[in-house]
Design brief:
- By secondary structure, the chain is of the alpha/beta class.
- It folds into two domains: 3-179, NAD(P)-binding Rossmann-like Domain (Rossmann fold, 3-Layer(aba) Sandwich), CATH 3.40.50.720; 189-310, Orthogonal Bundle (N-(1-d-carboxylethyl)-l-norvaline Dehydrogenase, domain 2).
- Helices cover 49% and strands 12% of the residues.
- It has twelve helices and eight strands.
- An eight-stranded mixed sheet has the order 3-2-1-4-5-6-7-8.
- It is globular, with a radius of gyration of 21 Å.
- The structure holds nicotinamide-adenine-dinucleotide.
- The site of nicotinamide-adenine-dinucleotide has 24 residues, from helix 1, helix 5 and strand 6.
Length: 316
């Protein structure tokens, strides 16, 4: 068991605190917004209840257990004091992260590891030189109590022992770390998502398809195979010759990278920002975000449990 500090209690931070607590660690959680920190216990309890209902955690892991396993505290200094690992999950802004790392250099224990959950930033130039050997990116996917992938990227000065400590820690928690040799901006999964997004927004912006056409194509086509085969094994089943011919004979050009989409801009201007607003590409009726998240989590858990029973292709 290690002492783990989570800085930032927003969408990712509160969920990461729960994940490390479920992994057997003693967690302290902080946020510089008292309202966000105040909401964290209820959000963690809701996620925990969903996991318990699906039989993923034992009954002893109840609300009372949670209140001692994760301690929420307003003070950054008290949160990180003597922690072996400090998880940084604050807003994705270089200025905010840089200022925080400056504070952490003096507050963290001399051998503690700083693990950033950044999605897109090369954080290493933002870390004070004295902390760089102990800084790593450990990037999770939402919701991290259901998604097992953790991208681990060292910086140019990161001590390999720090990478190994975090890798072993998350692997022991039943997660699936992918260790990169160096900083790979966007990792693999986010790069694939970004490439898919470019094509999705082109199809929408050019008025060629509807959002439902896109999701139908994914749900009834891509989605069935990906959980068993991934992308590379699926290529083996397609046959590499066809993959080669597909590249040669492609009848349309890949999308040109753009920094915006007219469809996305229009929806956002209309207040259709997604589930939290009750509508985005789809209308989610008058169901609360909590109810929608709960249904999503229940269904993802059922799928995860089925996939665990089915297993991947042998030899993969
Ligand atoms: N949202 C996702 O799906 C997702 C997935 C993977 C990684 N990430 C990354 O995780 C990080 C957090 O993202 P999020 O979606 O949870 O954002 P969020 O806005 O929900 O939460 C960020 C929190 O950081 C707090 N904060 C800001 N400055 C702080 C400081 N100096 N000290 C303490 N708390 C501070 C804010 O009050 C806020 O509650 C980002 O780096 C993001 O790129 C997000």
């Amino acid at each position: 068991m290690a002492e783990v500090a989570v800085v930032g209690a927003g969408l990712m931070g509160h969920a990461l605190a729960l994940v490390f607590a479920l992994g057997g660690h003693q967690v302290r959680l902080t946020d510089n917004n008292p309202d966000t920190l105040g909401r964290a216990p209820e959000l963690m309890a809701t996620a925990l209840a969903t996991l318990a209902e699906a039989g993923e955690v034992d009954a002893a892991k109840n609300r009372q257990w949670l209140s001692t396993a994760v301690r929420c505290m307003p003070s950054l200094a008290e949160t990180v004091q003597n922690a072996a690992v400090v998880i940084e999950a604050v807003v994705e802004r270089p200025d905010v992260k840089k200022a925080l790392y400056g504070q952490l250099e003096t507050l963290m224990a001399p051998d503690a590891i700083l693990a950033s959950n950044t999605s897109n930033l090369d954080i290493f130039p933002l870390v004070p030189p004295g902390l760089r050997t102990r800084a790593i990116i450990a990037h999770w996917y939402t919701p991290p109590y259901l998604c097992d992938l953790v991208d681990l990227c060292p910086g140019p000065s990161t001590d390999p022992a720090a990478v190994e400590t975090v890798r072993a820690m998350v692997a022991a928690m039943g997660k699936a770390p992918v260790v990169f040799k160096q900083m790979v901006q966007g990792y693999v999964a986010n790069r694939l998502q970004a490439a898919m997004q470019l094509e999705v927004y082109r199809l929408l912006d050019e008025g060629l398809v509807t959002p439902k056409d896109i999701d139908d194509s994914v749900l009834h086509g891509l989605a069935l195979r990906i959980p068993i085969l991934g992308i590379m094994a699926k290529a083996d089943f397609t046959g590499l010759l066809l993959m080669q011919q597909g590249m040669k004979n492609r009848s349309y050009a890949p999308p040109v990278p753009r920094d915006h989409s007219e469809t996305l801009d229009r929806l956002i201007a209309e207040g259709r920002t997604g589930v939290m607003a009750g509508k985005g590409y789809f209308d989610w009726g008058d169901r609360s975000p909590e109810e929608l998240f709960r249904e999503r989590d229940r269904k993802l858990l059922a799928l995860k449990q089925a996939l665990r029973r089915i297993g991947p292709m042998e030899g993969k």
